[in-house]
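All the exercises in this workshop are built on plain-text protein records. A record pairs a protein's sequence with a compact description of its fold. Read left to right, the backbone structure tokens trace the chain's path through space. Once this layout is familiar, the rest of the handout is easier to follow. Here is such a record, shown just as it appears in the course material:
>
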Amino acid sequence: MAPQTSIPLSANILGTIGTICWCVQLFPQIWRNWRTKTTEGLPATMMWLWCASGVPFGIYAISQNFNIPIQIQPQCFCLLCGITWGQCLVYGRKWRPWTVVLLLTAMFSVFAGIQVGLIFAIRPAYNRGVEWPVLLVGIIAFLTMLSGYLPIPFELIKRRGRVVGIDFIFLTIDWFGAFFSLMALVAQTEFDPLFGTLYALCCTIEMSMVTSHLVWRLRTRGIRKRAKEAGVEFDEFQEGIEWQEKGVDLHAKIREMLGRGDEKKVDGDVEEITNEGQVQVPDVKGVHGHAVPNVALSV
């Protein structure tokens, strides 16, 4: 589609609301991570992919000449996701804070350079009617952002539908950000189907996460009640622990399958080396005429 030539006032207002939501959406999550000093249940891969998606997202929005709020939106989104990813490295993987600060500074510098360079490279051609470079960038942004959600089903299956480590205030604000951004695209002179689909899918996925957690609460209401009567938290209550342990950790199973294959190969190599390192000594007669059995000597 061609770049927007005029932006209606309603699109600017709706886009501004969506951008404000997406500029503050991760503050509750960042605060939660800092307060609890843990990011368990919050996939670091999701945060990095969301951060990286801000680069093609920004290129596409600027090249398409969307309303100004939606052009600013990817930059704020990228920054906040990068900070949250840094928290995953510090609290989850025990990286040193200064190492993470230097890493984020270098990463943001590279991202900014790529975005500015590609905007100047493809925008003139796009204005002349060459659309495929911008469309390609939009598809990359679309796939990168949505791929950030891929770890979520693994977490939900592992925890039997329970959402852990993800702040629900963040999810609520994020949902409203996607919704109002979608409405801003609807209010524009020409609707953008690629990013309209992206915003709609974001709303759908986040609603499914909230629904999954509500179903978990419904299924565990009896256990949680008994845990409260016992004066302990659900995760400290033996019945609750046993119930949660029935979840399927697909990541662990995949690692186990790969590990078993490597282990069998290593065991086979060790056995082969051991056999090759043995020297068979033929039967010999002892001093009293008794046969001495073969002995394998390791060398």
Residues 261-268, 270-299 have pLDDT under 50 and may be disordered. The beta strands are 278-281, 284-285, 291-292, 295-298. The chain has twelve helices and four strands. Residues 9-227 form one domain.
